[in-house]
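Assess this today:

___
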Amino acid sequence: MMKEFEMSDLGLLCYFLGIEFKTIDNGIMMHQTKYVTDLLKKFNMFKCNSIVTLAKIGLVLEKKDIEELINLTYFK
């Protein structure tokens, strides 16, 4: 592509749109540590108490075949 278009090779992707990328043994890890840290500093919340929110590894979200009706006024 560099022969056809004027472009620069910036090396491996490491930070884009607030998401950091790190190459690990079995793939690429994405995280937003810098983005969240900057956000906490901006709103003077950097020294607030933190909590770990665990997510199930390999969780696959699926849509149910039969949808339950919901009250749309809760989401407006």
Q: What stands out?
A: Strands lie at 15-16, 19-24, 27-31. Residues 1-48 form one domain. The chain is about 15% helix and 15% strand.
